[in-house]
Amino acid sequence: MSDGFEFDLIVIGAGTGGNGVARMAAAEGWKVAIVDRLPYGGTCALRGCDPKKMLVGVTEGVERARAMDGKGLIAEPRIDWAEMMAFKRTFTDAMPGRIEAGHDRAGIATLHGSARFTAPDTVEIDGRAWRARHFHIATGARPATLGIPGEEHLITSTDFLELPECPRRIVFVGGGYIALEFAHIAARAGAETVTVLQRGPRILPNFDPDLTAILAEATEALGVDVHTGAAVSGIAREGNAFAVQYETPDGPKKVVCDVAVHAAGRVPNIGDLNLEAAGVDATKRGIKVSPAMRTSNPAIFAAGDCADSGPNLTPVSANEARIAAKNLLANQDERKIVYPPIPSTVFTLPPLGSVGLSEAAAKEAGHDFDVHFERTERWYSSIRVSAVASGFKVLVERETGHILGAHLIGPGTEEQINLFAMAMGAGLTANRIKAAIFAYPSYASDLGSMV
C-alpha cells in the first residue's frame, strides 16, 4: 500500500464487536487485519453467553424432571460435570477455527497477540509495528480489580467454565448475573455448599426489586446461601481451601470454600492499549464515542463493552459495530446509533427478564402510570410445568396506554420479554397487545393478561 500503510483497517478484538466490522470492510475491498490475544470469538461465544447457556440447558433437564416428579414422570436425574463440560466444548472448541477460516476466505489477515498503540496510526503487536489508515477497537470487558487482600485467589467466570469437576464448596463474590447464573448451575450439578456474597442490599440491583425477591426465594430454596450487605474484605488460603472474609452489619464473618469466583462486575478492557498515544479519550466507563461510534481520533472507532456507550450486552455490541462499519466505509457519519427498547435476561431457573423503565425510574421521570404486578404460580403456564416461582410487573402509561417497562420471572421469560421489547419498539398500546391473538396455550398468550 502507499504512504507506508500495511492496512486500510485494523480491528482490535475478534469478538462480536469486531468480527462484523472486519468482514464488512473486507467485502468492500478494503485491506483488513484483525488481532486478538485470545482465541477468536470473544467473550460471548467462548467465555460467556453461549457456553453458559449450554450448561443451563443441561440443568434445565434436571430441573424439569425434578419439578414433574410425581406428576407422571419417574426419573432420578443427575449431572455428570465432565460430560456437561464436554458438551459445552462441542460448540466452543470449534468456534475460533471457524471464525478464522471465514476471515481467511474473506481475505482478512488474522493476527495474534496484544495490540498497543505507539502512534495515532500505528499499533505494536508483540514487538512488530503495523500501520493502518483506520482502527476499530472492540476489546470488550474484563473482571474489575477489587483491591482486596488475596484477590489473586479468585477465579474468573472464564475459569469456572473450564473447571474439570464441580467444586464441593463455592463462594461467589458479587450478586449479579455471573453469580446467580453460575450459582444455579453449581447447585443443580451437586455442589454441597454454594454461597453468594453481595455487597449491596439486594441481588441483581438493576432489576425490579419485587421480582428479584422472588428469585432470591427460589435461589435459597435451591440450597444457595445468599447474603446481602456482605462486603468481601479479603481472601486467605487455609490449607487446600480458602477463607473468604466479609463485613456485615453484625460484624466480620468468614466462609470457607474450595473455589471463590469473581462475580463483582466487569470494566472496559482498555488498560493495555495505550490510548493516549492514539489520541483516543477514555474514562473509567470506557472509550468515549460519538453516536456514530467515532472516538476523539476521527480515524478510530470503538464499539461494545470497551466503549462508554449502550448497555454491555452482546446484541448491543453487534448493533454498535454495524453502525461503526457503515460510517467507516462511508468516510462520514451518515449513521447514528439509536437504541430501541433493549431486553436483558438472567438465565437462572427461573429466568428473570427486564425491558424499559423500572418502577422507580418511571416515577422519577414523572410518568403517570399503572403498575400491573402479580405472582403467577397459579396461572396455567406455571401449573403446566410445575413452576413455583413466577410473576410479572408491567408499567402502563395511563394517558397513552404505552408500555413503559416490563419485568418478568418464570418459565418462558426469555421469550416473553422479547415480545414486550418488540411491542414497545413498535409503540403498541396495552389494548393492542390485548387484542393480539396468540397460539394457545403458549407463554406468549399470557401477555394480554399482564397489561
Structure notes:
There is one protein chain. The protein is an alpha/beta fold. It has helices at 16-27, 42-47, 49-67, 81-92, 95-106, 157-160, 177-188, 209-221, 275-278, 314-330, 359-364, 380-383, 413-425, 430-435, 447-450; strands spanning 7-12, 32-36, 109-112, 115-119, 122-125, 128-137, 141-143, 169-173, 193-198, 224-228, 231-238, 241-248, 251-257, 259-262, 266-268, 282-283, 286-288, 300-302, 307-308, 344-346, 352-356, 369-375, 391-397, 403-409. Strands 1, 2, 3, 4, 5, 6 and 18 form a seven-stranded mixed β-sheet that branches. Strands 20-21-24-23-22 form a five-stranded antiparallel β-sheet, sandwiched between helices. Helix 1 (16-27) packs parallel to helix 10 (314-330) and helix 3 (49-67) crosses helix 7 (177-188). The radius of gyration is 24 Å and the shape is globular. The N and C termini lie far apart (60 Å).
